Amino acid sequence: MGIEQKKYKNYLWWLFHHLFRQKYLVIGVIIGIILVTYTRTLIPLILGEIIGIIPIISTITEILPLIFTALIIYAISIALDYVSMMVGHYLGLKVERNMRTEFFNVMQSKSLKYHDSVRTGDLQALATYDLRIVNTMIAHGAFYIYPFVQVCIVLIVLFTSLDLRLALLFFPFLILYCYYILYYRKKLIPFVRARMEKHSNIAITLQDNISGSKVIKLFTNEDFERKRFRNVVQAFRDNWIGENNVQAKYYPLLILYLAISNIFLIGIFFVYFNTLSIGELVAANLLLITLIDPTNLIFWATKDMMSGFAACSRVFDSLIKGENEDLNFLSDKTPERLRGKIEFKDVSFSYDGKADTKTHVFDEISFTIEPLQKVALVGPTGCGKTTLAKLILSLYQPQHGSVYIDDINLSKYPLEILRKRIGYIEQDIYLFPRSIKENISFGNPGASNEEILEAAKLAQVDDFVKKLPEGYETIVGERGTRLSGGERQRIAIARALVTNPDIIILDDSVSAVDSETEEKIGKAIENVLKRRTTIIITHRLNTIRSADKILVLRDGRIVAEGTHQELITRSKDYRRIFGRYLPLPPIKMEK
Questions:
Q1: In a domain, 330, yes or no
Q2: What is the pLDDT of residues 307-342, one digit of tens each?
Q3: pLDDT tens per residue, range 442-466
């Protein structure tokens, strides 16, 4: 599931899309605003009429119907206000839920290149804090719209039902009132946008410190990290102070008070000269007083709205940034199983996506791995061995050339099927903070207990799990910190084996195990590897020697390929890797 930039012109279109998915709730909120505003406007008119007829009535019973009418309308207004508020909050929660679900789904479908370029803490802030701000904006959106509806209705009533002169007197104040609301909004926007970013910086710093707590303690860098965290918190605080300084200069309320007092004083002169009734004067001023509460609402609702728009923009930008992977596209040519032939044809790749050969990890490399072959990749650190594995898994796309599996271009395979048929055991093991059983079955959630146990025994996991009090239900901790490096690697091997892959890629996957355990794992999965194409990235000589073919990488190219015996006599690059460990035979000069 993804989001196409062309589908929405900007973040507002995206926001309205989610709003109108809940169109009945939106209509309910709008109707509620109109009814609440209308009922609140009726009350001053009724009170003005009551005060206007008090001097001419003989008994109180004559105005009781008007008093009861005002009380009933007031009760209806309160009920409508409550219902509108609840509907608005429900609308906000529904939109937040849908946006967060979409955000999670899109992040799942983003390419590895996208995740290489973003910070985990920033994504966490977007999915939690920013979307909560969007919810608040929508839930309180009624309070932002309501004041302007109230102003419009007050003007209409002043012009049509009361005194035109009072309406004209109010008009200059209205212009200033609207100007300062827009001025307040303009001054607030930079601080609101900065607040989103500075909150993300706090989340990023926290994420870095929690994830790197062991490194911080090893290097006794606690004081440095405290200062770093204090600086980002200070930046957030300074921005907050700036935001509150803008809010302290909120002039619309002052202008409204000036309008009410001036119209009241001038209205007294109209009453004195019998050109305006007392009831009309009271009704007009009560109408203006009804604007005080909405003006107060604008004070904080503006901040909510600007915060919501800024948060919505940030979330939308993260959704449209980078490419999405389509895991499930269908192809008639997709086989159920892979034979395991892998072919690179003139493949060039660089992480920055540029065609400049100086930045290439690979520069027009070509090679073929036959089905069921056991191939070792060797070369100096940083020569691209792990990158090559990720190209086979289609985690990255080459800028030039093509990768084929079973003579079918990799782009023709559904990614979900491709990656389930290739077992990748990475060098940097990541385990979820779940049970050992859940981590093993992660690649195949439908695996039976027997399949999990079989994979665990092959990977020598069962040996140490039996010694744990909770066995396979043992929680491994964050990133598997409760286990040793060797135990984590064995679980990762079991996780790959339980998927029953057709191709296995071992990326230095036994680097953290001792020689005895490595030998046990090697013997245990030897029969498994015979039935699969296997790519081994390692510097361990015993493993390399047993390979059917060895590919030697250097400077983005395949500089040699062959068996151990062939390469040790004719490849300088291969001899350089193992020269310090072995007595080397004389090099054979190629004709």
A1: no
A2: 888 888 888 988 888 777 766 554 555 667 788 899
A3: 878 888 888 888 888 888 888 888 8
CATH of the domain at 46: 1.20.1560.10
CATH value at residue 509? 3.40.50.300
3-state secondary structure 72-129: HHHHHHHHHHHHHHHHHHHHHHHHHHHHHHHHHHHHHHECHHHHHHCCHHHHHHHHHH
Structural domain boundaries, residue 453? 342-578
Strands (E), 354-491: 362-369, 374-378, 400-405, 408-409, 422-425
- On whether both 287 and 382 belong to a single domain, the answer is no
What residues form DSSP beta bridges with 368?
Answer: 343
C-alpha dihedral, 400 to 405 to 406 to 411, nearest 10°: -70
Reference 556, options 389, 359, 355, 342; nearest CA is 359
Sign of the four-CA dihedral 299, 301, 305, 311? positive
* Same domain? 201 vs 258: yes
Residue 263's closest CA among 134, 167, 353?
A: 167
% of the chain residues with pLDDT over 90: 6
Tokens for 495?
A: 């996780």
The CA distance from 441 to 455, in Å, is 10
The model carries a pTM of 0.73
Phi, psi of 302 (to 5 degrees): -60, -45
Asked if 375 and 235 sit in the same domain, the reply is no
Asked whether the CA dihedral 369, 375, 380, 384 is positive or negative, the reply is positive
* Same domain, residue pair 74 and 140: yes
Domain total of the chain: 2
Q: Which amino acid is at 580?
A: R
271 plus 397 within the same structural domain: no
- Whether residue 489 lies inside any domain: the answer is yes
Please report the DSSP string for 276-343 in residue order.
S-HHHHHHHHHHHHTTHHHHHHHHHHHHHHHHHHHHHHHHHHHHHSSPBP-TT---TT--SS----EE
What contacts 17, CB < 8 A, 6 or more positions away?
8
- Terminal-residue alpha carbon distance, the chain: 56
